[in-house]
Amino acid sequence: EHIANQIAAGEVVERPASVVKELVENAIDAGSSRIEVTVEEGGLESIRVTDDGSGIEPEDVSTAFYRHATSKIENSRDLFNITSLGFRGEALPSIAAVAKVELVTASADNGLGRRIVIEGGRLVTEEDTAAPKGTDLTVRELFYNTPARLKYMKTIQTELGHISDYMYRIALSHPGIAITLRHNGNVLLQTVGNGDLLQVVAAIYGRQAAKALLPIHAENLDFTIDGYVSRPDWTRSNRNGISIIVNGRYIRSYGLNQAIQRAYHTLLPINRYPLAVLEVKMHPSLVDVNVHPAKLEVRFSKEQELFPFVESSIHQVLRQEVL
Ligand code: ADP
Ligand code: MG
């Protein structure tokens, strides 16, 4: 069991950001409206994720740390109909195998909760405790028992960069969830969770940047596009200003990036980096998200239609500004 968990851990848990990802995805799956992530020393010292979601029933708390103990698949048919972010039931056991984990959870508003402590895969404590509804999970001393893995960790700044990049993506794709990221006592990101995408953009890029944005809405039979694109006269020194959310999931697409850039460059043939946050909706059959489950890349079955549609929609918004 221990060895199996440590091997699985190598696949799920690569660095502190992978722990944050798994815990935040669980919090989202639990229907949370508020998720707070607090990390110390780039997550190498500790990672704490607190949510106000469904919580875990007291009798299911220790089971959640067994391998393949997912509550998200009832039968094998569900495997072909996956809507939740996590479905393999490997995250919690994998994380607990290579760190010291403390979980406090309550599944009702009656103040009755359950606390469990697992270190290096070994159960240390399990007891009743008072807790608000939701889950509060702390991961300390990641990789303390796998020194070979610990050696591969980069600087605190690099590890934190991976964490904050991930949290920005989550905030952009979930404007309806109030998200907070703290590092060593400083608030790095805080969104209100009122569903307003522009508010999330302001939280990430600053108010000045948010003021330079134009709303966009376009639709045809296959696609709906909503979001914001920066004014054509607004310049940005950094190329990481394009965010694309497809059917609620943050994705990366070289083709869509090119289409967005082209909309600017055909209008103003100078090199500039736009800020753009686009929510694209389409029938799920038109996008294959399982090209690589761990990656952000997807495949569009109608990219010949989608890319030009995005380009012309943005072009139209920008042209109104230039004229
Ligand atoms: P998976 O997400 O693939 O089901 P995990 O190992 O990530 O597997 O989690 C195991 C189980 O623990 C989940 O299926 C869920 O029932 C429960 N769980 C984990 N985190 C939370 C949370 N934040 N809120 C509610 N339930 C949770
Ligand atoms: Mg999970």
UniProtKB/TrEMBL annotation:
Domain DNA mismatch repair protein S5: 201-319
Lineage top rank: taxon: Bacteria
Family, as annotated: Belongs to the DNA mismatch repair MutL/HexB family.
Known role: This protein is involved in the repair of mismatches in DNA. It is required for dam-dependent methyl-directed DNA mismatch repair. May act as a 'molecular matchmaker', a protein that promotes the formation of a stable complex between two or more DNA-binding proteins in an ATP-dependent manner without itself being part of a final effector complex.
Protein name: DNA mismatch repair protein MutL
Species of the source: Paenibacillus favisporus
